[in-house]
Amino acid sequence: MNKHIILGAIVAMGLATVSCDDFLNDNRFPMSQQTVNAEFWSNSVNVQNQINYFYQDYLGYGNGTGSGAFYFTTLNDDQCGRNSFTNWKNTNTSPSSSNWSSPYTEIRRAFQVIEGLSSQTKIEGAELNNYVGLCYLHIARQYYALVRCYGDVPLVKQLLDTESPELYGPRVNRNDVIDYAIECVDKAIANISKQSSKTEFSKDLASAVKVEICLYEGAYAKYHKNDASRSNKYYQLAAQTGEALASSYPICNDYTSLYKSLRVAGQGYNGLTNNSEVIFMKAYEQGVFMHSIMDYSCASDGIAGLTKSAFDAYVFKDGLPKSKTSYNNTDQGVPDAAAKELSIANLLEVRDQRLAMTTYDHVFFPGMAWTGPNTSAMWSMTGYGVSKYDNFETSVSDATTANKGYTCAPLFWGARLNLAILEAKAELGTLTDADLAKYMKPLWDRAGIEVTPTVAFLSGINDPANNMNVSSLIWEIRRCRRCELIMDDDIRYWDLVRWHQLQLLDTQQNPDILLGAYVANAPVQCGATTGDYANCSYNGNQRIFDNKQYLFPIPTGQIQLNEALTQNPGW
To answer: What is the pLDDT of residue 540?
Structure first.
């Protein structure tokens, strides 16, 4: 049985019960105190056990009945919340936050391993370097997470004790923290032994993490700080690192296989391990370590459905948006009064086929539920469903029961690389037709789009829906990213942050993001509508943008403990 699946189960169940006694007795669980015993650190099994807990940082589809970073994160313009209104990630200050504490806990954990290894002499050479490289990969990801949330943060580069003055240090400029994160990930790339592995940490994973951090920083420097020099530096790093890696992870032929691959021991279901596009995955297995994403996305008590904004973002088969296409661009489904159904198969047929692989071919809402393939009677406030993560080969019981899902989650994969390369080059002004043929056309081909993308074609579309004040070329690259990665890994929210477009989530300024399917011709009246469209405003709730939302509030308890800390603006 794959050891990483077992580790996933340990992470899911063991962290809540860990204690100092557990660690001191048998060293099975993550370290809860500093250990400097050279004999302990001379044992490779002990070191690997500590490294294994870095896997908890990758949420994927979630653990057991818990939520993950796919589908469940609904603060965006692609989904409306499940049975409730999705407000900002923060609405007020609080004494503590796991967004602050967890990364620092993990940074300390990684430095504990590094210091512990420095105290022994038996593990050396490539093995030693590999462990140290894995620690620096983990440190890089934690600082990236902190900077995305808080901006300037205290920067710790070594293991601290209770007397260390750095414990009470000030916040460090975010640029310096990101630069340090890149230093760490470069150490990881240089030192990790395994070149590639879909279920283990590897050099290629470290490179993919570097691409993500550099893409984020390139956009943040440009759109928040107006720092062209820094922006160009990081966009170039994103493009160069991505191009060096992308050819090793070619786009697979089946979009749905990325999200629905089953893993069953002894039955030939190997999850994503044979998918050419996958760099790193979270491996679930039937009866061993499972999730609940299928249950929540086909629930009879309401699902987080797609918005009209998301539906309309998909181009038609001619590569053009709704305002420009030569195809029939109606959004009216076909009603069946006898069956009390509203089919939208006609709408999906003429569009980018990623949409048909993401939503169901029927509309359903309160009062007009729908039972699809291997699902319960579903309804969505928007009328649109989410089929992207539902594997129809599983039993009805497994699909509609919490903690019974065993589809594997992609964490880093080829499409993410291709889209990063395209965006970085478009922002740098160096994107060519050859780049589009290499990195965008495979995505369009897989989606059934019948034209070849070129710089001239994308630049000439000029979609009137472009509300980001960017060129047509950059808008179309962003559109492709949105549709390809929809509902994946909370990507859309953080894209809007780095592009300085978070105001698009203001429901008063942009009421259309609360709309869903066209329901005027439905055989059953939809209770919550605006004009002809389903509405998911949830009793008039509104989400009002304030510039302070670009940064999370520093936990007030931390400010009380450390007088050198200052609060973020507006909080």
So the answer is: 82
Instruction: Give the C-alpha separation, 482 to 315, whole Å.
Output: 11
Higher per-residue pLDDT: 18 or 214: 214
CA-nearest of 305, 303, 297, 293 to 79 is 305
Spatial distance between the Cα atoms of 97 and 87, rounded to a whole number of angstroms? 17
**pLDDT digits over 520-540, tens only?**
999 999 989 999 999 988 778
CA-based nearest residue to 497, from 90, 61, 55:
90
Which of the 8 DSSP states describes residue 554? Answer: P
Mean pLDDT, rounded, of the chain: 92
> From CA 155, how far away is CA 145, in angstroms rounded?
13
Nearest to residue 156, comparing CAs of 228, 164, 463, 293?
A: 164
**Cα 332 to Cα 328, 388, 412, distances in angstroms:** 11, 22, 36
425: enclosing H helix or E strand: helix 414-428
Structure tokens at 229: 């020099």
Phi and psi at 291, nearest 5°, equal: -140, -175
Q: Is the pTM of this model over 0.90?
A: yes
Q: What is the rounded CA–CA span in Å between residue 372 and residue 391?
A: 12
Distance CA(392)–CA(409), nearest Å, equals: 16
